[in-house]
Design brief:
The radius of gyration is 20 Å and the shape is globular. Helix 3 runs antiparallel to helix 6 and helix 3 packs antiparallel against helix 8. The protein has 2 domains: 156 residues, Tetracycline Repressor, domain 2; 150 residues. It has 306 residues and is mainly α.
Length: 306
């Protein structure tokens, strides 16, 4: 078996999305090593289960991927990784992920299993169902945040979970919008579900979830009065969230995407992970947001802020 092909099929470039499991630990403003250790175990468990899902998905879609202009280069579609080997590896990763999660708690194992079942249903059928496909994609992010909560044993503000869910829906809508735009430009439908969408519809959904996500985050950052963040000084992070949403929408704009096509062909909102890893504007926004969160957290723990 080609080890390099197996590693590529596991899509490690997608793993940064799993860092969302640290959200609850970060926003708790607590430095308890056990909380961060448990969150790290949850991270490892999600990396394993997500890779298992990618392997199963590529086996299911192998014929469709072979006719796709870029997906045909995936290890399973290209023949570099045999289907039997991919399924064995997926089973091993699945069992390892559940075992690792169960070492923390049955609740975390339950979240991992729920993620696997939803993603399997998505691979088999739900990705062909309009709207349900978007909710399935978004559920993956929400379950990552929930896994962090369960692993750390921390409570969660409803605004926190609502913000994660709405931002995940925003990314999912942007992904479908980019896929539809590219399909229309090339005259080739790469996903069956895209025939049920239109750009005006996705733009309306985008506007709704982007506005809702921003408002949910603003309400969370308002502090304990609204059952949100530990301190209302988290309002200082709101501009970074707004800039991040604006930046992502700029990158999804057809004219901007066309201008960037030659210099950054892989950085498209069709692939959110590539935007996260490659766009300097997003990097600076995330850095500014993270530094502000850490400074506010330290100041709050020291009693300098209310």
């Amino acid at each position: 078996m080609n080890v390099n092909a197996l590693v590529a099929a596991c899509r490690p470039r997608q793993w940064p999305k799993n860092l969302l499991v640290y959200a609850s630990a970060l926003f708790s403003f607590r430095a308890d090593p056990q909380i961060w250790l448990n969150s790290s175990i949850a991270l490892g468990s999600f990396c394993l289960i997500s890779s298992a899902v990618y392997l199963v998905n590529d086996v299911i879609d192998v014929e469709a991927d072979r006719s796709h202009p870029s997906k045909c280069r995936r290890p399973i579609a290209s023949g570099a990784l045999p289907i039997a080997a991919a399924l064995v590896a997926a089973a091993f990763l699945f069992c390892s992920s559940l075992a690792l999660a169960a070492s923390i708690s049955q609740g975390l194992a339950g979240v991992i299993l729920a993620y696997a079942l939803i993603q399997l249903a998505y691979c088999l059928q739900l990705k062909r169902q309009p709207l349900l496909d978007i909710f399935c994609i978004a559920s993956g992010f929400l379950l990552r945040a929930l896994a962090g909560l369960v692993a750390s044993g921390l409570g969660a503000s409803p605004w926190f979970l609502l913000t994660i869910g709405l931002l995940a829906l925003f990314l999912a809508v942007e992904k479908r919008k980019a896929e539809l735009r590219i399909s229309l430009e090339r005259g080739v439908v790469t996903r069956h579900v895209l025939m049920r969408y239109s750009l005006p519809l996705l733009q309306r959904l985008e506007s709704l979830v982007a506005s809702s996500a921003f408002m949910a985050y603003a309400l969370w950052s308002a502090g304990p009065t609204l059952k949100g963040a530990p301190t209302s000084w988290m309002l200082l992070t709101v501009p970074f969230v707004l800039v991040g949403i604006f930046r992502y929408q700029l990158l999804s704009d057809p004219e901007e995407a066309q201008r960037r096509a030659n210099a950054h062909p892989d950085q498209t909102t069709e692939k959110p992970e590539e935007i996260l890893l490659g766009d300097r504007g997003i990097h600076l926004t995330l850095l500014g947001w993270l530094v502000t969160v850490v400074v506010v957290g330290i100041a709050h723990r020291q009693g300098w802020l209310a």
